[in-house]
């Protein structure tokens, strides 16, 4: 790999990581009314980096370089519009009262950007897609994969969300106080959950884990759990789930980038500190009589974390928790995972019946984990030719390069 290739790889990672931070910093400095401007100049700064860094090399502090360029571009743009703005600490004393209150309640700039994108004037799907695009830096295609939707549909939804925010005008300046923040919590939790999912099991690219994405989602989840307003039992449950899942990140791929399935992972590589933190959050989450889907998913992850060996995992408990989760949410993805648990608990025939019923959902036909689950269950039943067909179906879906390699090996083993 050439020096230029290395810089390009680092640049792709930096662009994804810093885009949301740039927009968050600019919105904080310029005010919510300049939300569209912040997005534009952040993109301009990133384009500048992509045109300069491959030839001149990465600066010592890429984040500071981007922040400086973006702020300068913002000031120039505002001057051309005959407006004045100060990005220095001189503006601190003249901040609006609600801005001061908002920043004291939500200190993290990225979390503030998420809350801004989760504006009640938008539908929930608009909130989620816009936030994944602006705050998390995902491409339209990646977001489409998350929602099992077309790229065109997601692009239209994001554009519509931006138009709605622009139409708010000065209303956008009104920052949410306590009640407003609380009303945005459900969408905020979903965004962080989806962000972690993409990092934990990316549907494209050449890595089986995107550590920077997953760990940023974990950081945001713990910020939410610690927040005085947002730190509800539901937030604690989400933080618990993320800690349990993140504890396995290092064990999920081999040194050469190949996928290592849960049952084959070296559990000595699991991060015990994160597991302990997860159980701490789970205890706090259970201090409520009302269970959320995050409680149940965290409980499933906790069952895996408690098993010192794959052979002694309590799959019956996991099946029971999935049954509760299915009763709570109508999701084919949850049903798919539930079928896998049923097979692991010793009933692959029942699992296959469940999966075959799910096959009537058109979205599942382009969802690789569905075909993978079906292939694995068919293998357990000794039906290798049919399993090979399902592996091929999975390879026709959008999946990462490591998943393709894994599926090819599984397909060959069925021949």
Care to describe what's here?
This protein is mostly helical and 415 residues long. The chain has a domain at 341-415: Serine Threonine Protein Phosphatase 5, Tetratricopeptide repeat (Alpha Horseshoe). Helix content is 67%, strand content 0%. The protein is globular, with a radius of gyration of 23 Å. It starts with a helix and ends with a helix. Mean pLDDT is 86; it is low at 87-94.
The major β-sheet equals:
none
Order of helices and strands: HHHHHHHHHHHHHHHHHHHH
How would you state the average pLDDT, rounded?
86
CATH topology assignment of the domain at 341-415 = Serine Threonine Protein Phosphatase 5, Tetratricopeptide repeat
> Would you tell me the structural class of the helices and strands?
mainly alpha
Total of helices: 20
* Unreliable segments of 5+ consecutive residues: 87-94
Briefly, what is this?
By secondary structure, the chain is mostly helical. Helix content is 67%, strand content 0%.
